[in-house]
Design a protein that fits this description.
Strand content: under 5%
CATH superfamily of the largest domain: Tetracycline Repressor, domain 2
CATH class of the largest domain: Mainly Alpha
Largest sheet: none
CATH topology of the largest domain: Tetracycline Repressor, domain 2
Number of helices: 11
CATH architecture of the largest domain: Orthogonal Bundle
Number of strands: 0
Number of domains: 2
Shape: elongated
Structural class: mainly alpha
Oligomer: single chain
Helix content: 55-70%
Order of helices and strands: HHHHHHHHHHH
Radius of gyration: 19 Å
C-alpha cells in the first residue's frame, strides 16, 4: 500500500509540475527537462507514469473533468448552477485547472486533442438537464443537447474573457451573470425562483465536496 501511495503522490507531483510549465511557457515550448526540474523527479519516474509530453498534457487536461461528483440536489437545475459556479471557483484557485483550460482553449496546440474536456463537460450538462427535464423543470421547447452546448460554449467564452481581462479574478461574477441571464430561457419560472447562485456559490459547493465525512 505504501508503494502504491508513493506512486500516486509521484504522479500528482508530475502532473502539477507539467501544469505549471505548460501554463508559463505554453505546450509547444515546454520541454520534458523543464517538467523534470519543476517536479524534482527522475526521468525514469516520469516515464513510468507518462510516455510522452502529449501523454502529460492529457493528464493535465483530465483535471478539468474532476467536477463530476457534484452533491446531489433535489432541484436538478440547481445542480447545473453548482457545476458552472464550482468550475469558476476552481479556475480561480487551482493552477492545475487553469493549465488544463489553457491547453483546451489554445488553438495553437494543433497536435493535441483538446476535445476531451468539452465533451466531458457537455456530458455532465446533458445528464443534469435530462434529469431536470424528466422532473418538469425545463420549459417545453428546450432541447437538452442544444441547451448543453450553449452552457458549455457560453462558459468557455466567459472564462476566456475573464482570463484576458482580470486573470480570472472576476470569473465568479461572470459565471453568476451567465446563469442569471441564461437560465430564464430554459428553466420554468417556479423552479427559477428557488435557485441559489450567489457569487460565492462555487466556493461553498467546493467546501461541501471537500469537507471530512462524518462516521455513520
Amino acid at each position: 500500500m505504501a508503494i502504491q501511495d508513493r506512486a500516486i503522490r509521484t504522479r500528482r507531483t508530475i502532473v502539477a509540475a507539467a501544469a505549471k510549465v505548460f501554463e508559463e511557457n505554453g505546450y509547444q515550448a515546454a520541454t520534458i527537462m523543464q517538467i523534470l526540474k519543476e517536479a524534482g523527479v527522475t526521468k525514469g519516474a516520469l516515464y513510468f507514469h507518462f510516455k510522452s509530453k502529449e501523454d502529460l498534457a492529457r493528464g493535465v487536461l483530465a483535471e478539468q473533468g474532476q467536477t463530476a461528483e457534484l452533491p446531489a440536489r433535489q432541484i436538478k437545475a440547481q445542480q447545473l448552477v453548482d457545476l458552472v459556479m464550482l468550475h469558476a471557483h476552481r479556475l480561480q484557485t487551482d493552477p492545475l485547472v487553469r493549465a488544463s483550460v489553457r491547453l483546451t482553449l489554445n488553438s495553437l496546440e494543433q497536435d493535441l486533442d483538446r476535445s476531451g474536456p468539452f465533451q466531458e463537460f457537455g456530458e455532465i450538462c446533458r445528464s443534469i438537464l435530462t434529469a431536470a427535464k424528466e422532473q418538469g423543470e425545463l420549459l417545453p421547447h428546450v432541447d437538452v443537447a442544444e441547451a448543453s452546448d450553449v452552457v458549455v460554449g457560453s462558459f468557455g467564452g466567459m472564462q476566456a474573457m475573464s482570463e484576458a481581462l482580470t486573470g480570472y479574478q472576476d470569473l465568479n461574477l461572470r459565471a453568476q451573470s451567465l446563469v442569471r441571464y441564461l437560465l430564464p430561457s430554459i428553466v420554468v419560472p417556479s423552479v427559477l425562483a428557488a435557485l441559489v447562485y450567489d457569487a460565492d456559490r462555487g466556493s461553498r459547493v467546493h467546501e461541501e465536496m471537500t469537507a471530512p465525512q462524518s462516521e455513520p
